[in-house]
Design goal:
The complex is a heterodimer of chains A (229) and B (114). Chain A has 229 residues and is mainly α. Chain A is 74% helix and 0% strand. By secondary structure, chain B is an alpha+beta fold. Chain B has helices spanning 3-27, 32-40, 52-61, 85-109; strands at 30-31, 65-70, 78-83. Classes of the chains: A mainly alpha (229), B alpha+beta (114).
């Protein structure tokens, strides 16, 4: 991290702080606009700190941007939630959050279950004796076909939510959509490839861990993109 | 510029600048940095390039512009601003009104009667 990167970060932090009392829509819009402006300058002049410095000067002090944003606010600043309610646009961030939560639900438990079943199968006399009876008559491990079936359903719903929030994660959305098929492929590998037992069991566990890591990383990345709502 | 100029410009910009943005977008969709450079080069229309972004946010809320994402040959995807049908109507109205306004101001400043 060099000096101009630090100054860009400080500039954006200052601006975010000065906009903090504005409505979230305006705040996110303005911040995203300024951030993309600086990203575009950096992309045009890679490794040229002077270009970024000049861009910051041309943007002007963050106070002035905040003052302009404040001037845009309606004359009556607090209309009360009941007047804003019916016309307020859908909170796209909420859809993104719901989509990410369902995505986690639709992938991680199933890869983890498949891996667990294989590991238990390696260390005991077999997954069937360990889990077949279940607890209080409820099977602990769903059948493979059920796992895949159950996994696809929340995945499909999460894709629908993510499509609603499409603009929110332009850089990560491709990865988000690929996670469902990747997860199912991981479960299939764990289920179909049984021999040699130790090698395939360990590989299943590694694949499950990797899928979990990928899902979590993609979710964090999508959440951090923070484009405008 | 004299010190007093900036105060007068601040007042004059309000109302005119947003229509200048609409006029730029009338020819082609543009992204933020591009608009900022076109308007900010002389320091007359934009006080600082950063003040463009609150204005773009307001135009979008008013439905006069809309945004689309497009891949860029260099760097991250860019948000392009496009004029909406409503924005084009607002621009046409401003063009008509501006001409009579400008003529009246010019005539008065030159000591005549509007």
């Amino acid at each position: 991290m060099n000096g101009s990167d630090t100054r860009v970060t400080t500039y954006l932090d200052d601006l975010a702080r000065m906009l903090s009392d504005l409505d979230p829509g305006t705040r996110d819009d303005v911040l995203a606009g300024v951030r993309e402006h600086l990203d575009a300058v950096a992309a045009e002049h890679p490794g040229d700190p002077a270009a970024l410095e000049e861009a910051l000067v041309r943007l002007g002090p963050p106070e002035r941007i905040a003052a302009e944003a404040r001037a845009d606010q309606p004359a009556v600043p607090s209309p009360g939630p009941w007047t804003a309610g019916p016309t307020r646009p859908l909170p796209a961030r909420g859809w993104l959050g719901a989509g990410l939560a369902l995505l986690l639900l639709s992938t991680v438990p199933f890869t983890a279950t498949a891996a667990l079943a294989r590991i238990v199968g390696l260390t005991s006399s077999g997954a069937d004796t360990a889990f077949g009876g279940g607890m209080f008559g409820v099977p602990l491990l769903p059948h493979v076909a059920e796992m895949i079936f159950l996994g696809w359903f929340p995945w499909a719903v999460s894709v629908a939510f993510l499509l609603v929030a499409w603009r929110l994660a332009p850089r990560t959305r491709g990865v988000l959509l690929a996670l469902g098929p990747i997860s199912v492929a991981t479960v299939l590998v764990g289920v179909i490839w049984q021999e040699p037992r130790v090698v395939s069991g360990v590989l299943t566990a590694v694949l499950a861990l990797a899928t979990t890591g990928l899902v979590v990383a993609a979710a964090v990345s999508a959440w951090r993109e923070r484009p405008t709502a | 510029m004299e010190p007093g100029d900036s105060a007068i410009l601040t007042h004059l910009r309000r109302g005119a600048l947003e229509h200048c943005v609409l006029a730029l977008l009338d020819t082609e969709p543009m992204y933020g940095l591009d608009i900022a450079r076109r308007l900010g080069d002389d320091g007359v229309l934009l006080a600082g390039e950063g003040t463009l972004y609150p204005l773009l946010s307001r135009l979008r809320k008013q439905g006069l512009v809309e945004t689309t994402w497009a891949e860029s040959s260099a760097g991250p995807p860019r948000r392009y601003y496009t004029l909406t049908a409503q924005g084009r109507i607002a621009l046409d109205t401003f063009r008509r009104t501006w001409k009579s306004f400008r003529d009246a101001v010019d005539t008065t400043l030159q000591g005549g009667h509007p």
